[in-house]
Amino acid sequence: PVGGGFGDSFIAPASTLLPVAEELGDEQAIFTEPAAVAIHAAWRRPPRAGDQVLVLGCGTIGFLLIQAIRILQPACSITAQAQFAWQADMARAYGAQQVYLADDNGFAEAARLTGAKLYEGRGNNRMLLGGFDLVFDVVGTQSTLNKALRWTRAGGTVVLVGVNLHRMKLDVTPIWYQEVNLIGAVGHDVVTWEGETLSTFELAMHWMQMGKLDCAGLLTHRFPLAAYRQAFVAAIDKERYRSVKVAFDLSRDAPEE
């Protein structure tokens, strides 16, 4: 038997269950949880007016995080790092003003976009003086986190949103020498928005109803449950399938090619 969300059933406290508004269709409602994660991440260090913000990772949460940042602070500048060109196009559509690719020279891009000075030493050791005020690492690998710390200005903040469940070698020099703040964001939260205290699940649905959070285009693939193998392949191979969110449609009974 498969547990968790793939089980036939699971137990949850009644207090954690929320009704889905009739105005929200299923294709919007399935984004409630990742949107709640993105909103919580943005709240861990809310952007300020004039901040230069970098979002590393353009998947479901990354695209929703770009929008949450824009809602919280319209007067900040958002840059996104994408893996593929088609993700870069989507990041711009969801509110990122600048985008570069993971294969680009990220140090040079960070220096160009923020006006930081790039120093290069022995062994390809590179460091910025200056950089982004705020970086959200939605990937969470050894490579992205080490770079995020070096692309952040002294006194700036890195929010670790993504997770890679393996031990990593982390150079903490920027945390010590430049007093870069490293904080984590996991799951969901209760926040106060416009005088109302509510869970980020509730706020996610509220923003979707208001049209503040745009989920159109994020659901890229639908499969019947019987085609679960193809669904997982599509979800994993993003370069070939251009997948963001893959969902099972239980009303369908014919496998999708």
What key phrases describe this protein's structure?
single chain; 257 residues; alpha/beta; six-stranded parallel beta sheet; two-stranded antiparallel sheet; 12 strands; 33% helix
| Overall pLDDT level | 93
By DSSP, the count of extended strands is 12
The helix/strand order is: HHEHEHEHEEEHEHEEEHEHHE
In one word, what is the shape?
A: globular
Percent helix range: 25-40%
Q: How do the strands line up in the largest sheet? A: 3-2-1-6-7-8
Rg, alpha carbons: 19 Å
Look at the helices and sheets and give the structural class: alpha/beta
How far from one another are the termini?
Answer: 27 Å
Low-confidence stretches: none
Helices, by number, come to 10
- Beta-strand proportion: 15-25%
Assembly of the depicted chains: single chain
Largest beta-sheet details: 6 strands, parallel
Written description of the protein model:
By secondary structure, the chain is of the alpha/beta class. The chain has helices spanning 26-29, 32-44, 60-72, 85-93, 106-114, 142-150, 173-177, 200-210, 228-236, 238-241, and strands at 52-56, 77-82, 98-101, 117-120, 126-129, 132-137, 152-160, 181-184, 190-193, 196-199, 219-223, 245-248. The strands form four sheets. Strands 3-2-1-6-7-8 form a six-stranded parallel beta sheet, with helices on both faces. It has a two-stranded antiparallel sheet with strand order 4-5.
